[in-house]
Structure of Sec-independent protein translocase protein TatC:
Amino acid sequence: MSDNRAQDLIEAVKNKGKSLEAEMSFFDHIDVLRKHLLRALLAIVIFTSLAFYYYDFLFNTIIMGPKSPDFWTYRMMCKLAARFPSLGADFCITEIKGKIINTEMAGQFTLQINSCVMAGIVFGIPYLLFELWLFIKPALHEKERKSARGFVFFASLLFFLGVLFGYFIVCALSVNFLTGFSVSPMIENTFTIDSYLSSIATLTIGTGIIFELPVIIYILSIFGVMTPKFMRSSRRYAIVIILIIAAIVTPTPDVITMTVVAFPLYLLFELSIYISAYIERKKNRELYGTSKAPN
């Protein structure tokens, strides 16, 4: 009996040692992740400081840009209307209605802080992705590292393409429509600066996130969660969802504006199908030596 008890005690000590080792390893990973996130936070702080330094340009030119009739998108729409009269006179935007006011004592102070922080986050996203990649990279095999090469570049490129599309197209069309929309001439459109800034930030950053769809599909396809067969079979539903998103994001009554927003989203969906099919063919070649799985 004493021998059995001694053996049980030894096993208990060994198991406890293994659990402590695993626990230490877990906290070591948390500590490494914390360091990566702190460096990413430092980059965001630097970009936020630069935004404070160039705040006049940030606010007057960028943030308030969609509120000005001289905005690039409106000037291009007027040129198109002059070249193609069939678009109609309403296609040329020469006035942005609505008045923006501040209703809080510290409103303009918080406006400056919030807008600079948002700009810092937007420009700090690529470095944040880079730090996350440095954290994940040691846990990947050599093949996985090669297949994920260029992740930071393509994810950042898609995000900024989405931000530009959201700012110049989605924001411009939405601001023009929402500031001029009225259910009664007795109601005057007067907006708070907080409402305006949150709308600009939501539409711009939200579109940037939507443009990350191919990257998300790429990751899901690697883990086998998403397949090209499922995406092709769901194409008609995806088209309906894309049209709904376009109608919500740009609540304009004309079909042309809705199509301008929906078409790039549909291209992203088709690109995601191609990426998922590429991942599936690659997996089949590694498993079966052919691009198609056996029946």
User: Anything to note?
Assistant: The first helix runs from residue 2 to 53. Confidence is low (pLDDT under 50) at residues 20-24. The chain has two domains: 2-175+182-204, 212-295.
